[in-house]
Recover the amino acids of this structure.
């Protein structure tokens, strides 16, 4: 970037979509990834910030519509300033930037200042929130037009920018944004201008997110219903016959984990697969990395073992982490998959086998039962004089090597990695608060170390602390990936209610979904 003061940046006015992070466009994502600064609103999902490059400035400018954290003029000035500094700016706005997003005003300001901008349209809540509630804004034979209207304006105002008389019956479907505070006035205007009082109405709050809530009624009773339920913002108001399609077309809220907040304790680097799978089933995956994978304190033994891998009869890997660390060491020493020669390879669990396959090694044995006890059954009974290398976590259990030795094998154990306290450390108080408020539905554990670290982060080192952790977990479903993890959790006083039948991420999610299926989230 030029530093002589003539360099001019560029502002991308990006639609962040209505809430579900998957509803950002590919172009929006690419802009976020390349931005030097990200300027974002309350309605833009925070999770999108993860796409920003490391070191990008993240500037929050919006709060509730009634108390702006920053006035529009200040936001405009900020965009101009950042672009003048030569920065690429991602201006992230909820929904679509040009649908009640004041994106037009920001663009005008930039144009006046002679600065470049581009508009990246987004999925607007006006269409997406009804869609996630099972309401199409148009439908053959039911609605052939829709209008999107601001509900922000007080309908009792003497001079209105909205022509209620024409609007009330002009389009088959009317979608109001920012209208919850004025709901009684909006309803009164529509009825006064000829919309029948029996017209169906739906309110969709936090649409497309795991907090989505929907309330239906008619123009005659929706105000009363909304008051009774204290149904608040942000919500869209959908008026029209299409609302009647909801019972037949509802889909998002039918997902087995819809509305559930599920804590993911896996290491950050591995959490995404579990989080994505949970989100697919409607859950909010709340990441709390209880562990982090780090190199062993002394890497020499691992490198040594890697160089000599071809001299063993068997190498046993117990996790994908172990495989990755082992191959990193092997490659650092100038070796590759060929260094294995005739050495046979065993992998505990299909995920470990997949990690090996990525390195070009097909495992000779993948025990059906995905734990140390299982692998013993998959190996020859007589291991007399065989040389076996076990590559695994520094803090691993002793069952496997002990049994191999009992069968006559000569066993070398090598620490491929160790697990340490993860980044969840920085969110402990947030987690405690959510647990305290009963806002956690389930916590998933994918290894003994995730349990141990989470309990210790919550202060469960002492007997007293343990009791406190038990109290925090009352009402929380504890889900474990397999018997070893379950055992650790129970030893630490947790009540494990869900255990995966197949000891994999997919198995864990399936068991959790089965547990919650048919029970309404509250
Ligand atoms: N540019 C945005 C709208 C901004 S105005 C868009 O295209 O979606 C803010 C209003 O949008 C809110 O008052 C609410 O009516 C609506 N809104 C935004 N996100 C929403 C969501 N997830 N669910 C329901 N309504 C939402």
């Amino acid at each position: 970037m030029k530093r002589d003061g003539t360099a001019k940046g560029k502002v991308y006015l990006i639609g962040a979509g209505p809430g579900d992070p998957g509803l950002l466009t590919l172009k929006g994502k690419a802009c976020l990834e390349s931005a030097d600064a990200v300027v974002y609103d309350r309605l833009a999902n925070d999770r999108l910030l993860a796409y920003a490059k490391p070191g990008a400035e993240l500037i929050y400018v919006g709060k509730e519509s009634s108390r702006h954290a920053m006035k529009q003029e200040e936001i405009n000035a900020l965009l101009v300033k950042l672009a003048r500094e030569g920065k690429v700016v991602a201006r992230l706005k909820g929904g679509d930037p040009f649908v009640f997003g004041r994106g037009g005003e920001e663009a005008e300001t930039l144009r006046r200042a002679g600065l470049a901008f581009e508009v990246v349209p987004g999925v607007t809540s006006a269409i997406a929130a009804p869609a996630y509630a099972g309401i199409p804004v148009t439908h053959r034979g039911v609605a052939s037009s829709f209008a999107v209207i601001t509900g922000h304006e007080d309908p009792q105002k003497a001079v209105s920018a909205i022509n209620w008389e024409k609007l009330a019956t002009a389009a088959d479907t009317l979608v109001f944004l920012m209208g919850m505070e004025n709901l009684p006035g909006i309803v009164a205007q529509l009825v006064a201008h000829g919309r029948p009082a029996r017209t169906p109405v739906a309110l969709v709050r936090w649409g497309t997110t795991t907090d989505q809530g929907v309330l239906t009624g008619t123009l005659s009773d929706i105000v009363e219903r909304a008051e009774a339920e204290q149904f608040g913002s942000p919500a869209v108001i959908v008026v029209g016959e299409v609302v009647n399609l909801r019972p037949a077309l509802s889909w998002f809220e039918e997902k087995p984990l819809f509305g559930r907040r599920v804590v993911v304790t896996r290491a950050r680097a591995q959490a995404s697969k579990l989080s994505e799978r949970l989100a697919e089933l409607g859950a909010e995956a709340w990441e709390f990395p209880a562990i982090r994978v780090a190199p062993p304190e002394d890497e020499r033994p691992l490198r040594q073992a890697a160089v000599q891998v071809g001299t063993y009869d068997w190498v046993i890997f117990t996790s994908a982490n172990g495989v990755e660390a082992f191959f990193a060491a092997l490659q650092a020493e100038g070796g590759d998959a060929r260094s294995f020669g005739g050495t046979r390879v065993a992998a505990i669990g299909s995920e470990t086998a997949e990690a090996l396959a990525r390195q070009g090694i097909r495992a000779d044995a993948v025990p059906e039962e995905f734990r140390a006890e299982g692998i013993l059954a998959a190996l020859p009974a007589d291991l007399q004089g065989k040389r076996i290398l076990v590559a695994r976590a520094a803090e691993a259990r002793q069952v496997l090597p002990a049994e191999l030795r009992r069968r006559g094998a000569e066993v070398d154990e090598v620490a491929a990695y160790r697990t340490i306290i993860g980044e969840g450390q920085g969110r402990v108080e947030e987690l405690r608060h959510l647990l305290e408020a009963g806002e956690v539905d389930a916590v998933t554990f994918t290894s003994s170390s995730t349990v141990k670290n989470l309990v210790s982060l919550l202060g469960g080192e002492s007997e007293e602390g343990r009791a406190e952790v038990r109290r925090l977990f009352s009402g929380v479903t504890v889900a474990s990936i397999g018997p070893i993890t379950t055992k650790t959790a129970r030893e630490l006083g947790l009540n494990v209610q869900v255990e995966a039948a197949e000891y994999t991420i997919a198995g864990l999610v399936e068991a959790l979904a089965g547990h919650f299926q048919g029970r309404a989230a509250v």
